[in-house]
Specification:
Layout lengths: L6 H5 L7 E4 L4 H12 L2 E5 L14 H10 L6 E4 L2 H11 L7 E4 L4 E4 L8 E2 L11
Parallel strand pairs: 2-5
Antiparallel strand pairs: 1-3, 2-4, 5-6
């Protein structure tokens, strides 16, 4: 189901910048492509990534890997100013989340605030590849 509910919010907010794409080739792929196109990096917080109920029976690592590198979700991944992102999440409600922040350096890092898991450098190698 396309996230058309975001369109009125975005179309009514001219004057600020937004980058985005769908996550059809995986969340990590969308984040990496947005960052590369914008010349920035990101810090993605592992515990803020939503795990679909269908993945609940998998091990936490497998579920996270599916959320990051699986495809066919067709959710929107947007990069917005912090205040605008917070307003949008409140407007959309359940299913919308802020999962990280943009940085000036070029690395795209998956971090764990509990420090139980190592920092992972996200790239396009692990995601779905149309052509190899």
């Amino acid at each position: 189901q396309p996230r058309l509910d975001v369109l009125p919010f975005l179309s009514g907010s001219l004057g600020w910048q937004v980058s985005g794409m769908d996550s059809s080739d995986g969340l990590a792929d969308a984040i990496v492509q947005i960052c590369r196109a914008s010349g920035v990096g990101a810090i993605v917080e592992r515990d803020r990534i939503s795990i679909a109920p269908a993945l609940a029976n998998m091990s936490p690592d497998t579920a996270l890997e599916s959320a990051l590198f699986g495809g066919e979700d067709f959710e929107l991944v947007l990069c917005l100013p912090e205040l605008t992102a917070t307003e949008l999440v409140l407007e959309l409600g359940q299913g919308a989340a802020i999962i990280g922040k943009i940085t000036e350096h070029s690395e795209i890092l998956l971090v764990d605030s509990s420090r139980q898991f190592p920092i992972v450098n996200l790239d396009l190698q692990a995601g779905f590849q149309h052509f190899k």
